[in-house]
Write the structure tokens for this entry.
Amino acid sequence: MNIRPNLLCFLFLTCFHTHLFSLDNLRTGDMRSLGLGGSETVTSVLFNPSLAAWAEGARLEMNCFNRYSLKELCTLNAGGILPGHFVSTGLHVASFGYDDYRESLFRWATARQLGKRWALGVAVEYAMIQTATDEEDRRSALAADVGLSWYCSERLLLGLTIMNYPSADIGEKHSREKFTPGTVQAGAQWTMTEAVLVSGNIGYAEGQALDCGIGLECTAFNDFHIRGGMKLSPPLPSFGIGYKYLRFGIDVAGVLHPLLGASSGMGVSYFF
């Protein structure tokens, strides 16, 4: 029996236990965001709930992101957005890990336009950890997000979001690490031309260094997009492509870590 992947995963989770708890493994952006260097604040409802207010139509989506080619470090998320005249709503579920270590997320978001250029959104989430090795290490948390987006012009979108604040851990009161670290992010998206879009993101999470990212998306031809980006701390180059055919869309992305190697993912969407 080949035990190498499980052994590597066990060492990863053991040696970097504190690091994992300080990161949000469940909140992995869609493939478009990842391909743009992590510009989630202006591209992903999972990071900024107010973006649901700008959705042109209802959609369902599913994303799979595989870290460092280890299936035990894979994040799966699925969700949808339903626009409305008064409010727009979104629902997401996510799972990270493998049989002996599993993190799960259930998130509901709602957003409303405040005039023609502003939108405000809030989200409530429940996250939990399940382990097979230590029954006393089961933890869960309740948290909330608040997001704001502003079209200061037809071509420039600004976003601001506060994630996991307030939050309350349930269980393991003696633990020093927060399961849902508080995070503040700001981003911008500038449509230079009909074929070129530039994005940027800056964020801070509890216990981590300031994180910045930039991205570029070019439309090669109708409904086919080529993306590239870079996160700056540490340097994480990324790339991706996206294509929409009729009501279906597919996006793929890759991220290269200087020490741990490549991570890749794919997302599928259906537009109503």
